[in-house]
Design brief:
- The N terminus and C terminus are likely disordered.
- This protein has one domain: pyruvate-formate lyase- activating enzyme.
- It is built from twelve helices and 13 strands.
- It is α/β, with parallel strands linked by helices.
- The longest helix is centred in the C-terminal third of the chain and has 18 residues.
- The strands form three sheets. The protein has a seven-stranded mixed sheet.
- Helix 8 links the parallel strand 10 and strand 11.
- Helix 2 packs parallel to helix 4.
- The protein is globular and about 55 Å long.
- The chain binds iron/sulfur cluster.
- The site of iron/sulfur cluster has 9 residues, from loops.
């Protein structure tokens, strides 16, 4: 069934046979549950669009597939004796609190299943809609490990509206992390993707680290823009429209889809300075594994 929600997307309700998906990754979390396919946040740098390309499912931002039975299927999967209560990532290729979630409300059901099974979880969101479920997250955090991340890369609200039109403003994302921390969750800022020549200036980065220190986040993970696959063509198209003057700089900074070593080194110098300035704890992979928590790996 196709439904047009209060938001601008077209949402197709589908049922799924499996909720959990395994993937090989260098991250310490190999199981994903994505309650939607597609994402209405519409970030211009989104690298998850490949998942729709792969399935020929049309516009990643405008055609959203809603997995109406995901909570029930997940419940069955977590009930199997073979399931070892491994951490589950709820935001592998989509944001679970994207605009459609306001209408379809899949996440409360999923969180109740996770509470029942005391299953550790990580999720990343750019939406303050997560406030709606804060009591469920508190309950989940009281029985298992819950790690909430928010990608915050730009403090300028005009820029945010242009680049991440469907997501919440940066200040709301800091507030949601603060609320999740008070609810007993680990909270991380994913300073990713840092956009060369747009969001990599010291003033912007300094404010993000300062606010991160104020709410005492558990970590900040910086990562520069990645233009793998079709993201490159899409992002360069966006630049030609809104920042044509930056195109020569981008051609210098990117070799294919990879960022240059020189740029990486320059960004590394900035974030190490800010880490020291604001005493943001550096979290390494072994520490995370020991603590049985998850965070996106630091680049530096
Ligand atoms: S929130 Fe994530 S999945 Fe959604 S559009 Fe933005 S980058 Fe893509």
């Amino acid at each position: 069934m196709i439904i047009t929600t209060n938001t601008t997307e077209h949402c197709a309700q589908i049922t799924v046979k499996s909720a959990l998906h395994y993937h090989e990754s260098e991250m310490p979390c190999h199981w994903d549950v994505n309650v939607y396919r597609g994402c209405g946040h519409g970030c211009k740098y989104c690298f998850a669009q490949y998942s729709h390309d792969y399935m020929q499912a049309g516009d990643f931002f405008g055609n959203i597939m809603v997995k109406t039975n995901v909570a029930q299927v997940l419940d069955k999967e977590l009930s199997k004796r073979s399931w070892k209560k491994l951490r589950i990532n709820l935001s592998g290729v989509t944001d679970p609190y994207q605009p459609a979630e306001a209408d379809f409300m899949l996440m409360p059901g999923v969180l109740k299943v996770l509470i029942r099974h005391r299953n550790p979880v990580v999720l990343t969101t750019k939406s303050s809609l997560i406030f709606r479920d804060i009591e469920l997250l508190r309950e989940l955090a009281s029985v298992t490990s819950v790690s909430i991340g928010s990608s915050i890369t730009m403090m300028d609200e005009n820029l945010r509206q242009l680049i991440e039109p469907g997501a919440s403003p940066a200040l709301e994302r800091f507030r949601l992390l603060e609320a999740c921390k008070q609810a007993g969750c680990r909270v991380n800022i994913l300073l990713t993707p840092v956009l060369p020549l747009i969001t990599d200036n010291m003033e912007n980065l300094d404010e993000i680290y300062m606010r991160a220190a104020e709410i005492r986040v558990n970590g900040v993970s910086p990562w520069p823009l990645n233009l793998r696959g079709s993201t490159k063509e899409r992002f360069m198209g966006f630049l030609s429209l809104h920042f044509p003057d930056l195109l020569p700089g981008y051609r210098q900074i990117f070799q294919g889809w990879r960022i240059s070593k020189a740029y990486e080194e320059e960004l590394r110098r900035k974030v190490l300075f800010l880490r020291d300035k604001y005493r943001i704890p550096e979290i390494t992979l072994p520490q995370l594994e020991q603590a049985n928590h998850y965070i996106q790996l630091d680049l530096f």
